[in-house]
Amino acid sequence: VAGIIAAARDGLRVQGVAYDAELAAFRLPPEGTSFLENDIGLGLAIQDAVDRGVRIMNNSWGWDFYIGDGFSKAEILEGLPGQIAAFRNMAAADGIMIFSTGNEEQAQPNLQSGMPFYVPELQAHWLAVTAVGPTGEIASYANHCGLAAEWCLAAPGGEVTTGDFGDQIVSDGTNGGLGGSGLDIKAGTSMAAPHVTGAVAIARQMFPNAPASGLTRLVLATATDLGETGLDDVYGWGLLNLENMASVLDAEAGSVFANGAWAADEGQSALIETLTGRLIAGGPAGAWASVLGAHGEHDATPDAYGADADTFGVVAGYDMAATETTRIGAALSMTRTDFDEDGLDNGGRVDALTLSGYAAARKGVLFADASAGVSYR
Q: With contact defined as beta carbons under 8 Å apart, do 60 and 193 qualify?
């Protein structure tokens, strides 16, 4: 696993995906006498990694429980306090967790790789990885992306060639290992996950100041589509594609990503203007709805070509007068922002579903307002 991530580029044996990366190894605790004891031990090990500055963590392990398999969110939160606390701390530190989906031929991934299903705020910091064999199709042993499709993709993991999955150590490393190299050949989603971990390390090198959400989105969005068109419950976003990912450093490709982020901000600005207009206009409290539209443009910058963006959407809300001079409310909106780059046949689209809270207060001729929200794009 470590070699797949970062084996040196020295012309000997194998080369890792991110051969310049620094590795830190953490031993998982021995199996305890109870479910809770195991959870606490794992949580402490992960927290130790967070405390020591690890921000990209490969996890070629997972429990043989599967998301959507009868466990409620409340049961998961109560039953895994150690791991969930450590996972949340990793997310708070803007780190990324990469988990293998498991090797039990299941339609759903294992519990740890699917954790954002139960703790949604982890999704921007999570990648689940299933495996494809030499033919590029899902490996016979691999658990599918299933309900984790939105944060899942596939990577090479090898294929079972003889007997049961447990027989897939072709060489045990004795007598010089395979061909005298000291290496083993193994198959599994545990071998697929480190390919993605190496890719995340490269993405971090490409964009050292990007948030974790930008890196996970980059890895997913540049994958090669497999299976059913678009996101599907077998391959998720598709097959890891390092060439596509690296191409965003090309001026035109990188510009599209930069302008996509700008277009998303333009859509949010249009929503904020609509909410502000509602507050300034006053009128009777209660339910309301409105359409919104806006046009924005910017000149070329060092990171992006100039672009134009058009936003359209609908927003509905409910507000009430908290006092004679204060109003508070909530709104749900759906927006679509299309952008085109100046002089190029490049562009894109950003769709957003946003839940917002807003408030305003008046005192004489003075007026103040504020809004906050969370978006799904």
A: yes
Which of these CATH numbers, 2.60.120.580, 3.40.50.150, 3.40.50.200, 3.40.50.300, describes 1-248?
A: 3.40.50.200
CA angle, 255 then 256 then 260, to 5°? 115
Integer angstrom CA distances of residue 356 from 141, 224, 283, 285, 329: 43, 34, 20, 17, 8
pTM of the predicted model as reported, rounded to 2 decimal places: 0.67
Is residue 104 packed enough to be buried (19+ CB in 10 Å), middle (13-18) or exposed (0-12)?
A: middle
Each of the 377 residues of the chain gets a pLDDT tens digit; together they read 888 888 888 777 778 888 888 888 877 777 766 778 888 889 999 999 999 999 999 999 988 889 888 788 888 888 899 999 999 999 999 999 999 999 999 999 999 999 999 999 999 999 999 999 999 999 999 999 999 999 999 999 988 765 444 434 433 334 444 455 566 678 899 999 999 999 999 999 888 888 898 899 999 999 999 999 999 999 999 999 998 888 766 555 666 666 777 777 888 888 888 888 877 777 778 898 989 898 988 888 766 778 888 999 999 999 887 777 788 889 899 999 888 888 777 788 888 888 888 888 877 656 676 767 666 66
The DSSP output letter for 283 is -
Among 145, 153, 157, 158, residue whose Cα is nearest residue 240? 153
